Amino acid sequence: MSDTLLEIRNLRVSFPTLQGGRVEVVKGLTFGLGRERLGIVGESGSGKSMTGRAILRLIRPPGRVTADRMDFQGKDLRSLDESAMRAVRGAGIAMVMQDPKYSLNPVMTVGEQISEALETHERIGRRDVRRPVLEMLEAVRIDDPVRVAKLYPHEVSGGMGQRVMIAMMLIPRPAVLIADEPTSALDVSVQAQVLDIIDDLVRSHGMGLIFISHDLDLVAGYCDRILVMNRGEIVEECAAGRLSEATHPYTRGLLAAVPRLDEVRDELPVMDRRAGAPA
To answer: How many other C-beta atoms lie within 10 A of the C-beta of residue 223?
Structure first.
């Protein structure tokens, strides 16, 4: 892939069990990411979020992460010490978590948290940080950024909290953004607004995006390329616009289980976990 930002080869994540052995939740993932929108889809528990956390080395013992290759813009992420890895997190690769209520600091104002994200990666004085913070809040389409910057997380709505998280992650101008179910807690109208914001910023900054979701229709209409995960493995890869032509039984099962507005079936199929196909 030309202009590759991230290259992952044979990524594996495992955890110990009560029986003494280890269970793999990510099993040999291999993919590359350029300046594109890559969707990773699958059911809950398929290993999507673990993949994102493993790339950022956020999985702590007794969890174990191994890979033949984890390269980010020529840097081997496996060999970086924790200090160097902290410099990559945020400024190089940023991750928007699922629920801002649990990701934002409840005792810091919105403005303080966005300022901290910038000051961590850039040498900038406190007097100079206010302007980029307000500009970033405007970029994520928050009205009256001066007022919102003074609010605490519990004083903002779910949609606004998610926009604040996006502002925090993007203010250091990372090369790669990992968005882990960034709209799962939002209603449809706010969901569309948040996706538009992410799309505008990703395109204008020339970033690579990993969009993690269980919503096939959403990813198919938003991303350029899709990886389908099942039980920790990539079972299919396709262009987003051709997801409906997917051939793997698991992918076909996921597509068949999606309800439609013009539904005429008497019974909605469910997944057969043993076969990976609709029951």
So the answer is: 24
**Per-domain residue ranges for the chain?**
33-53+74-224
Go through 39-64 and write b for each residue having 16 or more CB atoms within 10 A of its CB, e for each that does not: bbbbbeebbbbbbbbbbbbebeeebe
Which two three-digit tokens encode residue 90? 């945020």
Which residue type occupies 28?
A: G
Residues of the chain with pLDDT below 50 are 1-2, 275
Token pair 């044979």: residue = 10
Residue with tokens 């987003």: 240
CA-closest candidate to residue 152, choices 90, 204, 108: 108
Residue whose C-alpha is closest to residue 52's, from 177, 234, 184, 226: 177
Tokens 């190089």 belong to residue: 92
CATH topology for 33-53+74-224? Rossmann fold (3.40.50)
Q: Tell me: the pLDDT tens digits for 245-265?
A: 999 988 988 888 887 777 777
- Output the CA angle 63-69-70, nearest 5 degrees: 70
Q: Checking DSSP bridges between strand 225-230 and strand 208-213, what pairing results, if any?
A: unpaired
